[in-house]
Amino acid sequence: MIDLYYWTTPNGHKISLFLEEAGLPYRVHPINISKNEQFAPEYLKISPNNKIPAIVDSQPADGGAPLALFESGAILLYLAEKTGQFIPADLRGRQEALQWLFWQMGGLGPMAGQNHHFNRFAAEKVPYAIKRYVDETARLYGVFDKHLSGRDFVAGSAYSIADMAIYPWIVPHQWQEQNLDDFPHLQRWFAAIKARPATERAYALAEQINPPARK
């Protein structure tokens, strides 16, 4: 059983996507970040960086005590290795998936996150910051669009944790002032993942836990 500490953000969606795809049993523990629940002392024992998501695996492969993990990329890699699913077995395919997983963690996520902040949430509109992060998001979309030319998914023909990491950060493309019509390979990839039954279940979970997430 996996205990998922979760809220309805792009990083939270990554883990529910994996769990739904893999069919792993899991329990959801909502951590409402708008109410600062991520700072609760009991949660900080699991996720010391006071961010979501986090998991506790009550049945780790070594047979030891329950294992707590934070950082969405680390969780995806752990679950892929635990189940033997959604990560290529061959050397080159594995490295391709992992480099794009880290591209999301170090590039797309932080830049799109700043885009969201300055476009949607900052008390003061800062035109320089808005333009900087909109432009950088567009550059990253262009890099990814070029990579997807001639391939179904990030690492080739097989869906992987890299796709699961990137997809939730493309969902709010309108917030980021990006038009998917400008990125045809990305748009085709995005539509294919959106139509997956596991994706539909993962986003239905978000609406159940946080109904305003539909917006």
Record the SSE blueprint.
Layout: E1 2-6, H1 10-22, E2 26-30, H2 41-44, E3 54-57, E4 67-70, H3 72-83, H4 91-121, H5 127-148, H6 161-170, H7 184-194, H8 197-209
Parallel strand pairs: 1-2
Antiparallel strand pairs: 1-3, 3-4
Helix pairs in contact: 1-3, 1-6, 1-8, 4-5, 4-6, 5-7
Walk me through this protein's architecture.
The longest helix has 31 residues, at 91-121. The model has no long low-confidence stretch (mean pLDDT 96). The chain has helices spanning 10-22, 41-44, 72-83, 91-121, 127-148, 161-170, 184-194, 197-209; strands at residues 2-6, 26-30, 54-57, 67-70. Strands 2-1-3-4 form a four-stranded mixed beta sheet, with helices on one face. With 215 residues, it is of the alpha+beta class. It folds into two domains: 2-86 and 198-214, Glutaredoxin (3-Layer(aba) Sandwich), CATH 3.40.30; 91-196, Glutathione S-transferase Yfyf (Class Pi), Chain A, domain 2.
Q: Which strand order does the major sheet show?
A: 2-1-3-4
Helix content: 40-55%
The quaternary state of the protein chains shown equals: single chain
The backbone outline, from C-alpha atoms, is: globular
* Class based on secondary structure composition and strand pairing: alpha+beta
The CATH topology of the largest domain is Glutathione S-transferase Yfyf (Class Pi), Chain A, domain 2
Q: What count of domains describes the coordinates?
A: 2
On the 0-100 scale, what is the average pLDDT? 96
List low-confidence stretches. Answer: none
Q: What is the CATH architecture annotation of the largest domain?
A: Up-down Bundle
Short description:
The chain is built from 8 helices and 4 strands. With 215 residues, it is of the alpha+beta class.
